[in-house]
C-alpha cells in the first residue's frame, strides 16, 4: 500500500463528438498529464461509447483519462434524466492504454481521485443546470473546468 499523494487533474480539451459535447480530463499518478496514447484511447472510447448511447440525456458530460500507478482507466460520464450521472468505465490492469476494455462487475468503478472529478462536475451541474431549471446553461457548465493537484 502506498500513502495517499495528490494527483494532477487537468482539463485537456472540449470534445465535439457528433451531437455530444464532452470535457476531456487527464488525471496523472506522476507528472502533469497522462500519456498521449491514453488520451488518444480515451477520445476513441468516448466516441464509440456515446455513438451507441440511447439513455435520455443532455448530450453533455465529461471523460476521464486516468493514468494510474498500476492501471489505466477511462470513464465516460454524461448527464441525463435531469440529475443523474451515467458512468461507463474501461480499464487496463496491464497499464497499457491499447488494452482498455469495459470494466466487469467485479471491477471497481471509481477511485478516490475519480470521485474528486465527479464531485467537481456535480457542483458545476448543480450551479449551471439544476439551479437554473427555467433556462439551463449548458455552455456555462462546459466552461467550468477543473485544473489542480488534489
Please explain how this structure is put together.
It is built from 3 helices and 7 strands, in the order ββαββββααβ. By secondary structure, it is of the alpha+beta class. It has one domain. A hairpin with a 3-residue loop joins β4 (72-80) and β5. The longest helix has 17 residues, at 112-128. The radius of gyration is 15 Å and the shape is globular.
What is the terminal-to-terminal distance? 19 Å
Characterize the largest beta sheet: strand count, sense, and whether it forms a barrel.
7 strands, mixed
Uncertain runs with pLDDT below 50, 5 residues or more?
A: none
Q: What is the total domain count?
A: 1
Radius of gyration (Å): 15 Å
Q: How much strand?
A: 25-35%
- Mean pLDDT over all positions: 96
What is the count of helical runs? 3
Backbone shape: globular
Give a quick precis of the structure.
By secondary structure, the chain is of the alpha+beta class. It has helices spanning about 35-50, 110-130, 140-145, and strands at about 10-15, 20-30, 55-65, 70-80, 85-90, 100, 150.
Task: Please tag this protein with its features.
single chain; seven-stranded mixed β-sheet; about 150 residues
Question: Mind sketching the topology for me?
Answer:
Layout: E1 8-17, E2 20-28, H1 36-51, E3 57-67, E4 72-80, E5 84-92, E6 101-102, H2 112-128, H3 138-143, E7 148-149
Parallel strand pairs: 2-3
Antiparallel strand pairs: 1-2, 1-7, 3-4, 4-5, 5-6
